[in-house]
Amino acid sequence: MKSGKRRVLVIGYGNPGRLDDGLGPALAAAIEGLDLPGVSVESDYQLTIEHAHDVANYDVVIFADADVNINAPFYFRRLVPQVSAGLGSHDVSPGEIISLALMLFGATTRSYLLGIRGYKFDEFGEILSDMAGKNLELAVDFVSNVVRKGNFDEAAEEFSGTETHYVDICMDRISLN
Amino acid sequence: MSTEKKLKRIIIEPVTRVEGHGKVSILLDEKNKVRQARLHIVEFRGFERFIQGRPYWEVPVLVQRLCGICPVSHHLAAAKAMDVIVGADKLTPAAEKIRRLMHYGQMFQSHALHFFHLCSPDLLFGFESDPAIRNVIGVAAKFPALAVQGVMMRKYGQEIIKATAGKKIHGTGAIPGGVNKNLSTAERDVFLKDIEKMMDWARGALKIAKDYTVEHLQTLAPFGSFDSNHLSLVRKDGAMDLYHGNLRAIDAQGDKIFDQVDYQKYLDYIAEEVRSWSYMKFPFIKQLGPENGWYRVGPLARLNTCDFIDTPEAEKARKEFTAVTNNKPNNITMAYHWARMIELLHSIEKIKDLLNDKDLQGKDLVVKGKRREEGVGLIEAPRGTLFHHYRVNKNDQIEMANLIVSTTHNNEPMNRAVQKVAEDKLSGQKITEGLLNNVEVAIRAYDPCLSCATHAMGKMPLTIELYDHNGNLLDRKTKS
Fold first, then answer.
1. Torsion of CA A125, A131, A137, A141, to 10 degrees
2. B464 near A CB under 8 A
3. Is B456 within 8 Å of A84 when comparing Cβ atoms?
4. Domain A3-172 belongs to what architecture?
């Protein structure tokens, strides 16, 4: 497949009413404003199971969320299907979404996680902190460049080893049939 | 004192597969007997302050920041309160029916999400089964057709919300005095195309919940169960009405405590108690006092309080439900799931009726009347009765806001469920993850929404801590 023809979905999620938790939706709004060809944008409070169906309709998906555990403005990495061993809340992790997309809809969507460093979360307020706002600008530039070039894996490779939140799935753990 | 030194405290934080952050603390003595079990939940008071000073017409949009799972319930409850503020005592048929469609879409998607994502892993695999499979991915692997139905039912409800509210999140559809858009015939036809499939799937989900409950009735009946009062809105003729009505409260035997109470006067009937160990208040019926006046809300309460359901298939299901307890109120905590699936079917029946109603294409969308300074909006949200109460000053700014959310109403019942399950299942046992999950199963029956805490990665670990009564940490496990 030629990179220019890839159908790309950007899902930004988080609560914009909780300060830097709104980084994901803010990125989604910024990318939507760029009107990039072949790029669709979704924004939500949190990931839930129906996103698995949305993901299945695209070649590439980028999940964008705030992150508190990194020392860089943002990171970008390839996702693998994931099971969280029953520790999920009402929300679902990106790894679980692509697991569901694969298991229920046969999706082979290539998936990436964009984590943007946030700092303030524990109050109500519809404003990003100054530092988070700067990180957002860098992340928007990064995503728009990656989407235009179509070099998702190469870009993710540059961030390899920068964070370790998600463990790889052990699919044999859920082979129940 | 010497005995107390041998007590141990287990903390489950946060409770998994419930919205927001919660913490369960269980105090054990030296023989692992449960002395005390409590559920602690974060409150919403910060939000009530946050909206003070904002113009009243912004409130139906702003309050959706409260919750990522049921923003529509807050949207509509706030809009109903603002109807009172702007003197819109009766909406146009188009406006009321658009709002109802939005609300039934919300009920449908939320109940589907709860059943397939949060509850079915416990029911399908067992409360104490391997946690590696006791989750939505495990359901997808073992029961893929069921999982697809769950995903698509949720999506159907979300699309109805999008069509009526303008967006899936931060919808703007309901405004003071009405709505800002109707439903076009093109939008309607998209939903009609799949309506029979959704009806079939709802029937299937109800059958699973009913069959499971009936088959396991002996073990489920005592599980986290107790007699209680029940509260909900009902229509003037006693029918279940999830969007509008008057307040009815009944006791555990089905006798009415009060009936057809105008919810603008809720403060004459409901009060809230503060307890030192919880951020969340404990509401109670004033005339019974805090000791005896606590009550349950939500699907179980609604099935108990209503006289009938005005859609044929859900009414048939309601009769089967009430027959199990000889037409007396059902006080079985785990029957919440069965009741919830009856409401799932009721919601899709209502959606079908509404989609075939030409009033949805009406163009008269807003009414106004004499401006008031205070208004209360109530709605039966998926988890139970939701109260929004506002006072607005002469500059149109919010001066006071008071919200009583479903989970707050259910605070005392959930604590009682936790205490009962902890006593029945944990006392004297070696504590395992499976045994602890029994406590979570009882909480999840209420489908609590523990407030919209932030969810950024790294912010929601599960911590289980074991303390002695002096606060010394004996053991700690954290998973993220």
1. -140
2. no
3. no
4. 3-Layer(aba) Sandwich (3.40)
Nearest by CB to B68, from A45, A52, A96: name it.
A45
List the single best residue of A50, A96, A174 to mutate versus B (max B Cβ within 10 A).
Answer: A50
For residue B14, say if its preceding peptide bond is cis, omega within 30 degrees of 0: yes
Mean pLDDT by 10 residues, chain B (480 residues): 52 49 74 80 64 94 77 94 98 98 96 88 88 84 93 95 86 95 97 98 97 95 95 98 98 98 98 79 94 97 98 98 97 97 98 98 97 98 95 96 89 92 82 79 80 37 46 48
Q: Which of B269, B272, B226 is nearest to B248 (CA)?
A: B269
pLDDT digits (tens, 9 = 90+) for A93-138: 899 899 999 999 999 999 999 999 999 887 777 899 999 999 999 9
- H helices of B27-143, in order, are 45-50, 59-62, 71-85, 93-113, 120-125, 136-142
pTM (2 d.p.): 0.88
Give me the tens of pLDDT residue by residue for chain A, a chain 177 residues long.
Answer: 334 446 999 999 988 888 898 999 999 999 999 999 999 999 988 888 889 999 999 999 999 999 988 889 999 999 988 766 443 445 678 998 999 999 999 999 999 999 999 998 877 778 999 999 999 999 999 999 999 999 999 999 988 754 434 333 333 333 332
What is the per-residue pLDDT for B470? 57
Asked if the interface predicted TM-score (ipTM) of this complex is over 0.90, the answer is no
Query: Domain segments of chain A: what residues?
Result: 3-172
* B446 near A CB under 8 A: no
Please give the Cα distance from A128 to A113 (Å, whole number). 20
B142 touches chain A (CB under 8 A): yes
Nearest CA in chain B to A99: B137
Spatial distance between the Cα atoms of A49 and B225, rounded to a whole number of angstroms: 30
Q: What's domain B45-409's superfamily in CATH?
A: Cytochrome-c3 Hydrogenase, chain B (1.10.645.10)
Query: Which amino acid is it at A99?
Result: S
Cβ-nearest to B65 among A15, A68, A100:
A15
Residue intervals of chain B classified under CATH 1.10.645.10 are 45-409
A90 and B14: CB-CB below 8 Å?
no
Q: Does B274 touch chain A (CB under 8 A)?
A: no
Please tell me the distance from the alpha carbon of residue A142 to that of residue A77, in angstroms, as a whole number: 13
